[in-house]
Amino acid sequence: MLPIILSFALTAPPLAAALASGESPGAARGVGFLRAELTARVDPPALRPGKRQVVGSLGQTRTVYTIDLQIGTPPQAITVAVDTGSPDTWVNPVCATAGSPGLMTACSNIKPFAWAASSTFRDLGLANQLTYGIGAALVEYVSDVLGVGTATIKPQIFGIAIQSRDLGYGILGLSPPLLGGTPPYSYVLDSMVQQKLIASRAFSLDLQAAGDKSGSIIFGGVDTKKFIGALAKVPIVTRPATPTGLDGYWVQLTGVGITTPDGVSHTSSIAPNPVLLDSGTTTITLPAAVVVAVSQLFSGAQYDPGSRTFLVDCANAGAPGTVDFTFGGKVIRVPYSELIWKGGDQCYLLIAVDNQNFPILGTPFLRSAYVVYDQDNNNIHLAQAANCGSNVIAIGTGTDAVPSSTGECTAQPSTT
To answer: Is 127 in contact with 12 (CB distance < 8 Å)?
Structure first.
C-alpha cells in the first residue's frame, strides 16, 4: 500500500487535545532472527478490495494479513496490517470514517492503543499526512516501547491517527524510504538493526494459501521448509526507473503465462515491466494487454468495466490450472483458486487492468510465493511457496547476507 504523498513534520497540537475519545502467539526468536505469526482476516462485505482502487463487486471481500504488536508499558496488544508497500507504522484508525460497513466493523473489532495508560509514552508534537491509493491518515508521531514477536524496540517512533478515511486497520510499514536516502526517523526495520535484534534490514514473508488462517513473517531469517527449489535473487528496481518515481519493492516481471487444467502451458514473454510486491493490496493489477491475454485462456471470460477485470466461469476456480509469473529465470505458479473470487452467482478474475501506471502483485500472488525482502542489498529472493515444517536460518550481513538456500519441500502445493 504505497503512500502517494509524504509531508513529514507538520506541527501538531498535543495528542490529548487532538484525540477525542505480552508476547504474541506463535512468536519465536532465535540467534539473529525474530518470527511472528500473521493472521489472515477475511473482512465482512466491503465496497473496495484493498488499498488500491478496483471498484465494483470485486471489492466485496478482502483478506488482510495482520500482526499483533505489543505497545507501551505495560504492553498492549495492538493489531495492525502488514504492509510492504509503505514505510510508516501507525495505529488507531478512525472507525467512523473507515469507508464501508465492512471496514467499520473490522475496525471496531480491534482494540485501540490506550496511550494514556502507558508509562513510557511520549508525544513528539509532530504530524504527517499519509495519503494512499485509497484512503489517508493524518497521524501524530509519538514514541513508546514496541514489541514484535518476542523482541522489544526501546523506543520506537510511530504514528497515532488523528483523522483517517477508508482505512480499517493501522499499519506496520516495511518498505524502504519512498524518496530514497536517509529516512526522517528510524522505521521499525531500521530500529531492529540498530538495536541488534537482527543483523540486516531483511525479512521473509510466508502468507500461506487462501483459506489458511495464518502465515508468518521472519525478521532477519529464512525458513527453508516453506518453499520449493532454490531462492532466486532478483534486483530491486529503484527510482527514478520505477513507474511512480518512488522507491519500493519493485522487481522486473518478464513473462506471464498460464498452465491450463489439461497441463498445456501457454507462455508469453513481455518487455520487462516493474511490478510492486505489495502485501497491502488484495488484487493483482497488470497492463491491459497482459490481462486480456491471460483472461482469454479462462472459459467464459468477459470483461467487466466496473471492476476493470474479467468475469469467468466459476468452474475455473476448482480446476487444477495455474497462472505463471516469470522473473528472469524464475517462475512462480499461482493456482486458479487463488485468482478467482466468487461474488453472488458471478466469479471474478483477481487480475485487474492497471490504468494508473501502477502495476502490483498483491496478496493473490504473494500467497503462492516465498519472498525474502533484502532492503540493505536492494534484492528480492523468490521461490515457490510450500509448507513442510520449519527450519529457520538467520540472515547475516554484507552482499551475500541472505543465505543461498534450497527449499526442503519437494511437493508442489495443491492447486485446488
So the answer is: yes
